[in-house]
Amino acid sequence: MEQESLNGTFDDRVMTEEQMEALRKQIAIYAVLCDQLVFLHNSLSSVPLLSSGMNSMGGGYFDPMVASSSAHGMSTRHRWTPTSMQLQILENIYKEGSGTPNPRRIKEITMELSEHGEITEKSVYNWFQNRRARSKRKQPQTTTITSGQADDAAVTTTDERESCGGDSGAFESYEHILFPSPDLGIEHLLNRDKFID
Amino acid sequence: MEQESLNGTFDDRVMTEEQMEALRKQIAIYAVLCDQLVFLHNSLSSVPLLSSGMNSMGGGYFDPMVASSSAHGMSTRHRWTPTSMQLQILENIYKEGSGTPNPRRIKEITMELSEHGEITEKSVYNWFQNRRARSKRKQPQTTTITSGQADDAAVTTTDERESCGGDSGAFESYEHILFPSPDLGIEHLLNRDKFID
DNA sequence: CGTGTATGAATGAACG
DNA sequence: CGTTCATTCATACACG
């Protein structure tokens, strides 16, 4: 019956700076690790880094449809699902002040993304629309209006917005990665599989 | 970037869940990336490029939860669970012709509900959304209902699990990431570059 | 302890 | 462009 009392009474679930620092450190380490791995490989082997048997290992583990993007077998998929790479690219573009999805740009992006999976211009368009709409769903401070530049002026140009402290958080907010993103260069590595075999 | 706690909120320098999620995402990507790199290497080279930090792909993932290493029993990790009280209130409001979840109303409701347990506007919003969707799905079941829960519309009940294995499911799983040990024994890995030759 | 079900949450797509 | 709908996913919870 009373299963409600187990909930914490705190209003906002947050992370302390220390914890955040830890995460950052981890990421940094990973970044270095990846870098080292590539370097390492190149150092001791002239073989082009590629994949090949990768997916044949017991239970494909990652990046599947990227390779077989054109696979229209299970086309029953109505809803397009971006691959992580596509997502990364999109996010990247989004962050690059390209808050202005030029009609022309869309095509470019679509082209780019099509390399990593099936995609349509419409989807790209939708994505940007959604992205923008959802980030804007930020909760304005309670006190007074502060309707200064609620528009698409210079939204978070200096440094991502952070500290939504307060409580309740926002509605549909999702953005701000506050540190160098990897860019997912893995694709380049995987790409090599075209040369082998 | 030094913004004092002029906000007057409870916490000063903390991270919201969303931000944390972002970090996790990044880490997850890196983790996968590293994994792939190692595997790739091993695939085409017999050189012992071990893999340590991360798990070896094959199904299992990493260790559960790491962020709260300090044993801060914060139960409200994800998925908010409405207390019976909250539920009652919500249902009540829902029935009151509130088929129109007023945006402004949400805040009020959230306020109200926060008195009975932790709640966020987002959750309230979600609740209404889900509620509506759910009812709609049950409606078309009219005619020959007969309380039959067996026939049902077979609306993708529990089978649409779909090809998570061979699909992009793996990558998309970073939702609730959990990375390798926080300590990162990558030194071993990095060290190798000195041993190998 | 493993399996099935209910439901909160995320998000692509559509509507006005 | 902002809001809403529909679909999917993952987790909490119940059953055996």
TrEMBL record, chains A, B:
Source species, domain of life: Eukaryota
Residues of the region (Disordered) are: 135-166
DNA-binding interval(s): 75-139
Localization (cell) = Nucleus
Q: Can you provide one Gene Ontology molecular function annotated for this UniProt record?
A: DNA-binding transcription factor activity
**Residue ranges annotated for the Homeobox domain, each copy included:** 73-138
Q: What is this protein called?
A: Homeobox-leucine zipper family protein
Q: Which organism is it from?
A: Arabidopsis lyrata subsp. lyrata
